[in-house]
Amino acid sequence: MEDNAYVPLNGDNVEDIICCPGGTEVKNKAFKGDISPVLRWKRDMVSMGMEGVIQYCNDVPVGFAEYMPTDKAPMPLEGSGTCTLICFHWKNCDDRKHLDMELELLRHTIEMCKGDYEGMAALAWDHPVHFPISMMEKLGFVTLDKQEYIQLMWLPFKDGAEEPGFVDSTYIPVKESSSREVIIEQGYSNRCPYSIHNANRVKGIVEEIGRERVEYHLHTIDTREEAIRFAVSPWSWDWLYVNGKASELFGVSDGELKRLFLE
Predict the structure, then answer these.
(1) Quick check: 82 and 89 in contact, CB under 8 A?
(2) Which 3 state secondary structure label does DSSP give 97?
């Protein structure tokens, strides 16, 4: 295989996605809970029409990008004849910056899917490292809509292509409980090892505090139906609400979460 090869994603190589068990993204990292559901989720999605690219460096998988028809994708978007970028990531295999490598990875992905779809949708973040808006703009994407720091971005492949849009969200996290002191409500997805990790972190803290003091709701967001049903704004498959108020998960220690719940 070439030193820097891009191979279409399929049922035979899906386990080479770098965030699956044993991949370069997760190897030697301590996750709470079993992350093997990540591979099962990806296999399920491939059987439902998910496509993409796996990038190899010296035969080692170092990057991936996934996309899916918008009307089948496990995200709260609607659109006809379009695809939606599900996820992408690149892990170091040389000295170049990972954002530069991800840009090239996405360019290959876009070229590969142009003939099959009228355009590509993506949810980009006001974040410098993962899914950055600036990267999507470099690729030609434009913003159609916003949810706080999330932007629905669009790259048409054909003139007159129908633009995608958000599915209206009606879900409201629970705010009050008549029988317990605090309500913790969480969304997570088996598509991502970090989301599984966060779900297990919170479950462990709830057990420490005691179930008699906490009303805990955990929602799986693996399917399109679940993504729409539990769509909060700004949309994410990995979210946390405490007494109806959005709370941060990433970069927050277990001790900080426990203090938040007890307060």
Answers:
(1) no
(2) coil
- The answer to whether the predicted template modeling score (pTM) of the entire model surpasses 0.85 is yes
Mean pLDDT over 258-262 rounds to 91
Would you put residue 59 in left (φ > 0), alpha (ψ -120 to 50) or beta?
A: left
What integer is the mean pLDDT of 223-238?
94
The pLDDT tens digits for 36-56 are: 999 999 999 999 999 999 999
Q: The dihedral of CA 30, 31, 37, 41: what is its sign?
A: negative
How many angstroms separate the CA atoms of 187 and 196, rounded? Answer: 10
Number of neighbours of residue 48 by Cβ within 10 angstroms: 14
For 52, 139, 161, 216, the CA distances from 181, given in Å and listed in that order, are: 46, 48, 51, 11
Backbone torsion region of residue 21, taken as left when φ is above 0, otherwise alpha when ψ lies between -120 and 50, otherwise beta: beta
If one counts every other C-beta atom within 10 angstroms of the C-beta of residue 162, the result is: 15
Amino acid at 169: S
